[in-house]
Amino acid sequence: MDAANRTWPPPGPSPPPFSSRLRASPPPHRRHRRRHSKKQHRPPPTPTPAPRGADFSALPPELVHRALAAACASDVAAASGACRAWRDALRPLRQAAALHAHGRRVKHGPVAGAAAAAARGGGGGGGRYEAERQRALVLFRRAARLGSAAAMVDAGLMCWEEGRREEAMDYYRSAAELGHPVGMCNLGVSYLEANPPKAEEAVRWFHPSAYAGNVRAQYNLALCLQNGKGIERNQKEAAKWYLRAAAGGNIRAMYNISLCYNFGEGLAQDPARAKRWMQLAAECGHKKALYECGIKLCAAGDTVKCLTYLELATRRGEAAAAHMRDAIIGSLSAANVQRALFDADEWKPRAPHPRR
Fold it and tell me: How many CB atoms lie within 10 A of CB 210?
């Protein structure tokens, strides 16, 4: 065929076999750059010298003493080993901790316990029990004068029990100003029970104590929020604090958060969680929760266990449970009644441990 009639170029030389599958090699300059590239190592940063005045031993002794006045004895002992200045500044608190511990042993020890039991049984131990209480109060007062906030709380509690409320509030106020959570909570309760009540002052002290983790303050703050006492009513915030207090082991808060879940007050309605919290409150000995669980057991047909719960609620002072208990007793056989009452005698409340 001549060149004028050709419709395709002449075939060229055949490529080498499998040449189309070979990867093209990178340019030489890239290979050279990749082969000889090295990471640039930055020199380590120069440590910044500590600023002047960072020596904690130079802190004023009064500041160190006040900062640890609400701490426990082990924390005070640990801080005393930081330096000689802290050891000297915290010497009064170490003495106060020893006096406070001795006072608690006197108040709750076997001698006071035996005297109290004798007094309750009419054995004439009332004088000895009162002497032990006064001895403990003297030790608490000595520790409080040395700056122990925990001793201030215990001294205030004993004064409150003896009817000296003004003196008790002074001790609570001193402990609260040092940041002791129980002191702040007790001061708030004292304001609520004052005549006339000072709800706004109570809420002012419940807040920091609740944020510090005191479950009693969390429960009382939730009550104030629910009822609008000393603060604007806020059911959602009340439910939040009820839940925190219940998770911390407060039995009353367990019952109240069950009602919140049951009726959808402040929280989304959740019957399963309501039932779980109500059962837990009953197992911990809450009288209304025992009564509520007894009603539900009766509706479910378990009258024997229902009678046990109603008997427990009646023994704890729930008047409404007594009428229903009597009606259940009349409908059961003597053997079942005896079995239910035996279970009530053997029943022990569950310890309200914090939920994690």
Answer: 25
Over residues 314-343, the mean pLDDT reads 94
The answer to whether residues 207 and 224 touch, using CB atoms and an 8 Å cutoff, is: no
pLDDT digits (tens, 9 = 90+) for 251-292: 999 999 999 999 999 999 999 999 999 999 999 999 999 999
Condensed to tens digits (0 to 9), the pLDDT of residues 193-249 reads 999 999 999 999 999 999 999 999 999 999 999 999 999 999 999 999 999 999 999
User: Model's pTM, two decimal places?
Assistant: 0.78
